[in-house]
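[stage:ingest] chain + small molecule (pyridoxal-5'-phosphate)
[stage:ingest] validated
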Amino acid sequence: MIYLDNNATTAIDPEVFEAMLPFLKEQYGNPSSAYAFGKKVARAIDHAREQIASLLHCEPEEIVFTSCGTESDNSAIQSALLIDRDRKHLVTSKVEHSAILKQAEALARRGYEISWLEVDEYGLVDLEALEQSVRPDTAIVSLMWANNETGVLFPVAEIAEICRRKQTIFHTDAVQAVGKIPIDLQSMPVQFLSLSGHKLHAPKGVGALYVNRRTRFNPFLIGGSQENKRRGGTENTASIVALGKAAELAIGHVREEETRVKDLRDRFEQQVMERIPGVQLNGHPEKRLPNTVNLAFEGTDSEALLMLLDQKGVCCSAGSACTAGALEPSHVLRAMGFSTDRARSSLRFSFSRLNTDEEVASAADILTAAVDKVRKANRSVVTVGS
Ligand SMILES: *Cc1c(COP(=O)(O)O)cnc(C)c1O
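[stage:predict] done
[stage:export] tokens:
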């Protein structure tokens, strides 16, 4: 198998796996318990908090562990709405992950007003449009750091600055950015940031929300006083320890993401472009994650391509995993102004540090053959039909 779908999920790093095992076996104490057996687990959670704080350059107290990226996204928005109930307006974009998109749609049905920022053909938002959309009654601006489908990076520092000037809360869904590019929250006025374990070589079902220490917060899950009263529920100790370890490893690997992983991605992109005619890049050529490439293959359909690639053991995706299976063309590519045809003939390839040079070469060969096959089949269908 050649796994080129690391934006959908990643393999657990063996070191991460080793780190979490004791907490699934002998270290089963409840971190809230008063005795040493529990307190030891509480200390492991605090260590994980420090490891994540080091990766993001923030304070450990600013990290709240959650069950996933989706929960982090929901918690940030719901908190902002509860803190100031007079503010009933939200700003977001048309290319967000469904964790934000569907939530905003649900809020719109409940009477909130949403400003949906458009993107250009590179997938970028217009900062002037952002500035104009923020109002005195804007509860929160939620814009992603890196797009999961195209890898396109929003100018988060500038967005944060606009929100600071306009005195509104800024949340960024950084699930795809954390671990892939350097993040320094010390120099950026962000109130909330979401991340998810399984996108950076930790297990599925654990995430974190950064809450700036000066930002008032209302818990999304109301219950016990875990996470300094910010998230009820007994901690997922093993997965939290794993997420901490994954963050520590990410600090050591972020250079590699920008060099070796980027190199793998660039070589794949170049080989595909050279060998297959009628290929177009979806997204910005530079303002993009180092691991992601989204390509349109003229005269094909992604579903047929995915099937042929799957037969040869290549995993990649059309649109986001969350919308796969549904016949809807990607909302991200549609928002970039591309035709349904282009959106329906596009594939995303996302690499990680676990990929090899050999995999890139084989995947390019397999993809070349698959595109050729689908185009020939499509041409013969047209001939028979006419
Ligand atoms: C994967 C992803 C999420 C959701 O994270 P889960 O942990 O799967 O809930 C949210 N936003 C973005 C950009 C993602 O890529």
